[in-house]
Design goal:
Rossmann fold; two-stranded parallel ribbon; uroporphyrinogen-III synthase activity; UROS/Hem4
Length: 196
């Protein structure tokens, strides 16, 4: 039997996609079609803010995409050198709050130490942050997507913990979605034996 999964494949570097692998164990043939794409924005502003850790009390990441934005910034040689020489160390004396293991792993890849990854969602992370931060302290820098939920900012604002959000990516329909779906379903018709 065939299964269509509307999701991005896992990074090729980390081996086969776990959904494909698991479904294969049950003799199911799975196909992945990505439905979303991400456009990164405000990267110069992001690096400008990252260049001034003294202005912030820490970092907050609720999405792997926000870390992808930072990794894009660090591809530029001069920015990568600045990060390696001093910025990374300056940020490491401040907390880096994250939701989830995937985001925590990406934080580690850029040389920072994640906290709160077991929180599981933005609401629980907000509670975790509130238990560690003092009201009216330096703002936490929150690189995020245009479609972020307001749970975390609202809880922190109610507790007097400043948060500076910066939109660093936008979510859109994958440009090849329509073509990929048409191709997939056309192939299914061709693969099916028609009995009259």
């Amino acid at each position: 039997m065939k299964v269509l999964l509307l999701k991005d494949p896992k990074d090729k570097d980390s081996g086969p996609d776990p959904y494909i692998k698991e479904l294969g164990l049950y003799s199911l043939e799975a196909t992945l079609i990505p439905v979303l794409s991400f456009e990164f924005t405000s990267l110069d502003s992001l690096f400008e803010k990252l260049s001034h850790p003294e202005c912030y009390g820490g970092l907050v990441f609720t999405s792997p995409r926000a870390l992808e934005a930072i990794k894009i910034c660090l591809k530029e040689k001069s920015k990568k050198e600045a990060w390696s020489k001093s910025l990374k160390q300056m940020w490491n004396i401040k907390p880096t709050y994250v939701v989830g293991k995937a985001t925590a792993s990406l934080v580690e890849e850029i040389g920072l130490v994640p906290q709160g990854e077991k929180a599981g969602n933005a609401e629980k992370l907000a509670e975790y942050i509130c238990s560690r931060e003092k009201p009216n302290s330096s703002a936490l820098l929150f690189p995020c997507g245009a479609l972020k939920r307001e749970v975390l900012p609202t809880v922190l604002r109610e507790k007097g913990i400043p948060l500076e959000s910066l939109t660093v990516y936008q979510t859109a329909q994958h440009p090849d979605l329509q073509e990929s779906l048409s191709s997939y379903f056309s192939q299914q018709v061709l693969d099916t034996d028609v009995v009259w």
